[in-house]
Inverse folding.
């Protein structure tokens, strides 16, 4: 059915605009989080001034940062217990403190205000990275719930900016900081000021939906989408299409600009234009707020009594009674659609004439009974524990309490959402299969992202350029964004075909198997190819993993399991940075006699970590396929007795 809209002024607040304002703030947080992946921009400065760090010392700093960025189990528990506001507040304090510390370290590079100690450097850089999991959990998981009808678009747009954010920050650095300042301290000043601004907005405005703020078409599935068997509603296609268009333009802009910077010497005017265009692209997402429609059904949700009184004065007592009852009685039930749980609203109140009919009134009464637990229209509440469901649960639901998962007797594709504790789940193989795949995919990210500057310098020793070094950071981030875009594009299409999102799990290791060896054979000017392929794999991994978690676990069980996977990312720098990349790089640097400038020349400097990481991904790819087959066959993470 077609939902009637009502006119609003450009700045008139509505429920729909409020939700899209939250979405835009989430994008700002993701851009801020992208700065965590720009270590390659400022790591060359650690070899100059009073620092003169060896590669092992640089890897020690980056390893502390990576470890803390993945140390997110406390984040998951904080989010599950206290919600997004507390989670984002902690993240903002950590991020601002970390970047401020880095600013004071690099403010005077010959005489650092906070010493040139590796420990001090690692401490403040680690604080900035520790905030990453708080920002991601607090913003992405919140908007996946707040826009549960558009989870694919959330990944497509917001999650993509987790990767694209590093590219945008890199472009801002090239435009305004690289040539205009002799050091990197002003860049850190920009980072902590932006973090304070975006973090404050997020703490104040990012919220989970409540019974008073639920919105039909965003976090409540409408009847038309239900009738079509799921997928994305049409109600808010326009603003999400605008956001998707801006995202695609941003990715294309970053890729074209990065390639241009790779081959052309930039003038000052070019740098300014690039910087201004980057900022405008980030700000243009506010247009999503102004293009969103406002629906009567959502005005009723918050203003049911007022609307009923207005209708009573126009249409007489009988219609008024029916309308009042319906406006106050919009009731909810949960319907599992493949990989997400939506709150389904009985929206028959849109038509007073239809609502007045006996048939519609009976339907409303039936749905009220469903919401109160007196009847289950679609069958029984799907069992959400790790064991197979009992034949017939009979416990009544209190009014307003909604199950995570309703299983339709006619829907054989519904998954059983796992609500077992983390301790129970780690005793079974499914969680470990997922963990190993993430370990392989994220280890490639660790090797390439943390050491991008050293990889480029080793392979282009005589032609090293800070601008081109930043370009590779940008290409990597843009490729990660493309991977997330593809996942977001595929998600609703897989859902309509009842194909679990976990089918995408093996793709990241497969891309790494192709991309990592390319570093060993690509000429210096073509290094953007392996950076792009590995970045694409990273995007696939991050885009699909969060959707896999939300498709397999109950809503209050996602945070801790998502955070558990981060231990894979914590282990990767210990192996690939501390044990492999740093020692191997420094060994060949000494052999070649480059101890004074801290650099190493040739493929031999990076071959060992690249080959070991490739072998790990060769193992991870088939394990990802096994995970997909097991969870699909069992309709979730379900254990036999």
């Amino acid at each position: 059915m077609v939902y009637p809209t009502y006119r609003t002024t450009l700045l008139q607040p509505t429920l729909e605009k409020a939700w899209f304002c939250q979405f835009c703030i989430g994008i700002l947080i993701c851009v801020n989080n992208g700065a965590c992946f720009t270590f390659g921009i400022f790591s060359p400065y650690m070899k100059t001034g009073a620092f003169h760090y060896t590669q092992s010392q640089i890897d020690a700093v980056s390893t502390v940062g990576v470890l803390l960025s993945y140390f997110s189990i406390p984040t998951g528990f904080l989010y599950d217990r206290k919600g997004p506001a507390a989670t984002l507040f902690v993240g903002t304090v950590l991020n601002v403190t970390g970047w401020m510390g880095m600013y004071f370290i690099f403010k005077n590079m010959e005489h650092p205000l906070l010493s040139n100690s590796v420990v001090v450097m690692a401490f403040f850089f680690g604080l900035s990275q520790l905030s990453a999991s708080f920002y991601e959990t607090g913003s992405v998981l919140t908007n996946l719930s707040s826009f549960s009808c558009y989870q694919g678009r959330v990944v497509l747009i917001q999650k993509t900016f987790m990767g694209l954010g590093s590219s945008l920050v890199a472009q801002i650095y090239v435009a305004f900081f690289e040539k205009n300042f002799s050091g990197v301290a002003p860049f850190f000043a920009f980072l902590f000021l932006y973090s304070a601004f975006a973090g404050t907005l997020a703490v104040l405005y990012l919220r989970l939906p409540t019974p008073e703020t639920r919105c039909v078409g965003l976090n409540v599935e409408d009847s038309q989408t239900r009738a079509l068997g799921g997928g994305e509603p049409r109600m808010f296609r326009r603003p999400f299409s605008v956001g998707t268009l801006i995202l695609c333009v941003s990715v294309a802009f970053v890729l074209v600009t990065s390639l241009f910077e790779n081959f052309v010497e930039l003038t000052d005017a070019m740098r300014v234009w690039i910087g201004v265009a980057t900022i405008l692209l980030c700000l243009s997402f506010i247009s999503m707020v102004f293009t969103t429609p406002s629906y009567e059904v959502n005005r009723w949700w918050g203003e049911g009594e007022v609307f009923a009184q207005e209708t009573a004065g126009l249409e007489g007592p009988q219609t008024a009674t029916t309308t009042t009852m319906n406006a106050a009685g919009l009731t909810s039930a949960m319907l599992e659609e493949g990989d997400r749980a939506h709150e389904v609203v009985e929206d028959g109140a849109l038509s007073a004439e239809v609502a007045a009919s006996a048939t519609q009134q009976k339907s409303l009464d039936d749905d009220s009974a469903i919401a109160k637990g007196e009847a289950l229209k679609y069958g029984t509440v799907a069992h959400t524990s790790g064991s197979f469901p009992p034949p017939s649960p009979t416990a009544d639901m209190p009014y307003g309490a909604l199950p995570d998962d309703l299983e339709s007797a006619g829907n054989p594709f519904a998954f059983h959402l796992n609500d077992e504790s983390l301790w129970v789940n780690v005793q079974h193989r499914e969680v470990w299969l997922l963990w190993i795949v993430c370990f392989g995919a994220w280890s490639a990210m660790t090797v390439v992202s943390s050491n991008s500057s050293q990889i480029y310098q080793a392979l282009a020793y005589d032609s090293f350029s800070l601008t081109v070094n930043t370009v590779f950071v940008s290409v990597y981030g843009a490729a990660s964004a493309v991977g997330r875009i593809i996942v977001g594009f595929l998600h609703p299409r897989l859902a309509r075909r009842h194909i679990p999102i976990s089918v995408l799990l093996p793709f990241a290791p497969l891309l790494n198997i192709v991309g990592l060896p390319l570093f060993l054979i690509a000429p210096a000017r073509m290094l953007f190819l392996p950076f792009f392929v590995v970045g694409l794999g990273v995007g696939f991994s991050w885009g699909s993993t969060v959707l896999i978690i939300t498709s397999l676990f109950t809503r209050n069980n996602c945070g801790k399991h998502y955070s558990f996977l981060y231990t894979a990312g914590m282990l990767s720098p210990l192996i690939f940075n501390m044990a492999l990349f740093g020692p191997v790089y420094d060994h060949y640097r000494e052999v070649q006699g480059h101890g004074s400038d801290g650099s190493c020349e040739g493929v031999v400097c990076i071959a060992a970590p690249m080959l070991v990481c490739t072998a790990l991904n060769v193992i991870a790819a088939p394990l990802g396929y096994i995970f997909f087959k097991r969870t699909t066959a069992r309709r979730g993470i379900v254990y036999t007795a």
Summary: The chain is about 65% helix and 0% strand. The longest helix spans residues 558-592.
